[in-house]
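== Polypeptide entry ==
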Amino acid sequence: MSDTPNTEDRSLDELRREIEDIDREIVELIARRTYVADTVAAVKDERDLPTTDEGQEERVMERAGENAERFDVDANLVKAIFRLLIELNKVEQRESR
């Protein structure tokens, strides 16, 4: 990823195709994350652990903010996305119990 985009060498269609590829990768990563979260839920269920782990959620949010800063992305946006992912995983965990 370069710091300055070179728009002279790339057409709008090429840029849109790149965004489509990135979007596909994002969905793939969300699917992988959901699979692992489902596995975590199964382990919690087997061990009779609570669905919510506020300490772990705080660590996830802290990492999200740190990664946002590392990649120069709006930390509030990244944290909002992660909050949504966490909440969706908790809903799924509750429903599967």
Q: What stands out?
A: The longest helix spans residues 12-46. The chain has three helices and no strands.
